[in-house]
Amino acid sequence: MEARTPALLDDYLFDLRGYLVLKDAVEPELLERLNRAVDAVPPLQMGEWLGNAHRRDYTRDTGFELHNCVELGGPFEELIDHPGWINYLRHYCGEEQSYVEGLFIDECILSVRGPGGHHPVHSGGYRGALRGAYHYANGVFRCGQCNIILALTDISPGDGATMVIPGSHKSNFPHPLQGDYARGDRMDNLAGAVEVPLNKGDAVLFVDGIMHGGSSRINQGERRVVIYRYGASWAATRFGYEYSQALLDRLTPERRRILQPIPPLRPPVRAA
Questions:
Q1: Which of 29, 38, 168, 267 is surrounded by the most beta carbons within 10 Å?
Q2: Which domains does the chain carry?
Q3: Of 108, 112, 79, which Cα lies nearest the Cα of 201?
Q4: Model confidence at 83: pLDDT above 80
Q5: pTM over 0.90
């Protein structure tokens, strides 16, 4: 696939709404390999590790969530700098035209959610963390973090689609009806929220500062997505996950620079 580049209309809509839908972001063949890899993941209890990947569900309702999923290798490594979106991330959150230009993957998560599951509403511009903040000035974007959610299955009404409140990444006021994340309040009927349906292979890109969550899945079956959160090259992983040396050693130089943009700087080892 040839690398896609954001157009002027993309910039306009991203600034206005805080999100974009990238149709057919990955190739059908890669999509098939990703789903086969998900099928091969063994059952894991909360807190269990699979190599250097870790099951860490955000809440009891968010479903199976495998953090550091790039450690599963193969097709997950190909997503690091996938041409379907990598230039968008460089543009929106890669400190473009600065002395620290470059990207870093903060989190990468495989999420599988069944009937009844949802992700509570969170974020928004009001008192939002700088880590996920939206900013544009002097002709460049300076977003703290942008997320890619890639649909591995069709996500239609009732399937638990991602929900957003368009424009809320710039809100100066709290949502009066937002509810409480810790309490697990659902986003389904929140005023101003819209679902973002996706066909398998589509991706939604959004600034982390937009108010977002996951609608309730009422249909049978599974909602499968992969989430890659990109930030500036100087960032650090949210939960302290580290990438295994085996993974770093087998990556292409470009992919390694995204996972480890600033390698450790140590004095040379002196002979005894």
A1: 168
A2: 8-41+51-259 (2.60.120.620)
A3: 79
A4: yes
A5: yes
